[in-house]
TrEMBL record:
The keyword Hydrolase does not apply. One of its GO terms (molecular function) is DNA binding. Residues 8-45 form the Ribbon-helix-helix protein CopG domain. Signal peptide: none annotated. GO terms for biological process: regulation of DNA-templated transcription. It comes from the Bacteria. Transmembrane segments: none annotated. Keywords: DNA-binding, Transcription, Transcription regulation. Belongs to the transcriptional regulatory CopG/NikR family. This is Transcriptional regulator. Residues 57-132 form the Transcription factor NikR nickel binding C-terminal domain.
Length: 144
């Protein structure tokens, strides 16, 4: 992969903000202030893309209780209903009752958010989180 061209900029911050930034850099293990700022800017740019209804890729992480009646069937039915957006999934049994499911999604950001909310709303889902990225996967091969 080609090395990215970097450009130096200068910013002015209140002293308290700079101190808080330095603490965050240390706490989160960033190599530098620059790396932390790039990460924050990228998060903001991704959020802006999501608002603008861009096609994005993301992961939906669900933690659910497998003992709820038909929960696996409901999740499977929703995955089938959104076959074009749900690219892949991984299911891991964490303990006797809890299951972690991670789905790879791609589509229009607002559509992915709506789909994710449907999964999260299933009775028995303990928690769920959609994480969008500013990327798109290459087209998948289709059987003819």
């Amino acid at each position: 992969m080609a090395k990215q061209k970097l450009t130096r900029i200068s910013i002015t911050l209140p002293e308290e903000t700079l101190q808080a930034l330095d603490i965050m850099v240390d706490d989160q293990g960033f190599d530098s202030r620059s790396q932390a700022l790039v990460d924050m800017i990228n998060h903001r740019l991704i959020a802006q893309q999501a608002i603008s209804n861009a096609v994005m890729v993301g992961t939906l992480t669900l933690l659910y209780d497998r003992n709820f009646p038909n929960i696996r069937i409901q999740i499977g039915d929703l995955q089938h209903q959104y076959l074009e957006q749900v690219i892949s999934s991984l299911t891991v049994q964490l303990d006797q009752d809890k299951v972690l499911e991670v789905m790879l999604l791609q589509g229009v950001s607002t559509e992915l958010d709506c789909i994710s909310q449907q999964f999260i709303a299933i009775k028995g889902v303990i928690k769920g989180h959609l994480e969008l990225m500013d990327a798109v996967m290459p087209p998948l091969q289709q059987n003819e």
